[in-house]
Write a structure and sequence with these properties.
The protein is α/β, with parallel strands linked by helices. The protein has helices spanning 36-47, 58-83, 92-107, 127-136, 153-167, 186-200, 219-223, 228-243, 268-277, 295-311, 327-340; strands at 20-30, 114-123, 139-146, 175-178, 209-215, 250-255, 282-286, 316-319.
Length: 345
């Protein structure tokens, strides 16, 4: 008698679940506290980065540890105290960057395999901590988003350096992508124009001109090939075209000098002083190089430079908020992320 045994093939494979993808927003950094100790810890990490201060030789180390870290933290702590988010006991930069990540996550909530997080290049939450957290959640792919519209080695590149530094210690590395600068991105320029117009409509005065102030950089870095200045110029050119303004109504300047070497010019504070002395009485300042308000916008521009303007004859001054976590600001980041995630979704 022949017995026929049915042979069953393997069960059909289930469709693979999408790989989890981590999206990490990264901003510059902030002290953990607004006292001298907290600022000193932050400045030591920041100023010890050879991307920020390229000459890390013995003379710089002596100046940093012997002079700068013994004098500058107390002064900067007073500045941080002027803008500190007392309710959350953190800097506005940390508050806003968290909100940007949370709102971006909500805007992407139809894609359950995306995990959005945020970090600071210097200070906390650290890039190492948040990359490890994303990997622990099963992210096998990672998109790092430096929140700098214009590229420079001292900002975007050092974010990449730190990401690579974390990954090189891993046996099983995630696949890594990094978003490019978006200095002429149409959505970014449109968002800037909208934010400027919306803010100006709330003022009780009409500014005679607008100053677009970007963070400064040593001229020597540009001479070595850093594209930062070119990209800042491109941003302002695009913004002028979008808003119908010429170079006399929308000025380009650079703020936040440090040390004795020549930095990118024209300097913001010197320009604002001269404008007031030359008879400009109503002025607005926008900071297109900052994705979120921070010490450099809320204290240096909105307070220090406002005082310079008023002291030299100005009458009305307004600092225009950064894009922050506004609807337009989140749309800029979302569009950038979605474009760079093509092929992963």
């Amino acid at each position: 008698m022949t017995v026929i045994v049915p042979i069953h093939g393997p069960a059909p494979a289930l469709a693979p679940a999408p790989e989890r993808v981590g999206v990490l927003l990264v901003n510059l950094g902030t002290p953990d506290s607004c006292d001298t100790k907290g600022v000193r810890v932050y400045l030591r990490e920041f100023l010890s980065d050879p991307r920020v201060i390229e000459n890390q030789g013995i003379f710089w180390k002596l100046a940093l540890n012997g002079i700068i870290l013994n004098t500058r933290p107390a002064r900067k702590a007073k500045d941080y105290q002027k803008i500190w988010n007392q309710e959350k006991n953190e800097s506005p930069l940390k508050t806003i960057t968290r909100a940007q990540a949370e709102k971006l996550a909500v805007s992407l909530n139809d894609r359950s395999h995306l995990v959005v997080d945020w970090a600071m290049r210097y200070g906390n939450p650290s890039m190492r901590d948040r990359i490890e957290a994303l990997l622990a959640q099963g992210c096998s792919r990672l998109l790092v988003v430096p929140l700098y519209p214009q590229y420079s080695a001292a900002t975007s590149a050092t974010v990449c350096d730190q990401a690579f530094r974390v990954l090189r210690e891993l046996r099983a590395q995630p696949t890594l992508r990094v978003t490019p600068p978006y200095y002429r991105d149409e959505a970014y320029i449109e968002a800037l124009a909208n934010s400027i117009n919306a803010h100006l409509s709330t003022l009780p005065f009409e500014p005679e001109m607008i100053v677009a102030s970007f963070h400064g950089m040593p001229q020597s870095y540009i001479d070595k090939g850093d594209p930062y200045q070119t990209q800042c110029v491109a941003t302002v050119d695009a913004l002028r075209e979008r808003m119908g303004l010429d170079d006399k109504k929308l000025l380009l300047t650079f703020q936040s000098r440090f040390g004795f070497n020549e930095w990118l010019q024209p300097y913001t504070d010197k320009t604002i002083e001269k404008l007031a002395k030359d008879g400009v009485r109503k002025l607005a300042v926008v900071m297109p190089g900052f994705a979120a308000d921070c010490l450099e916008t809320l204290e240096e521009i909105a307070q220090e430079n406002a005082e310079i303007f008023m002291h030299n004859g100005g009458q009305e001054f307004s600092a225009i908020p950064c894009l922050n976590d506004s609807d337009d600001g989140i749309q800029v980041i979302r569009q950038l992320v979605m474009r760079e995630l093509q092929g992963w979704l």
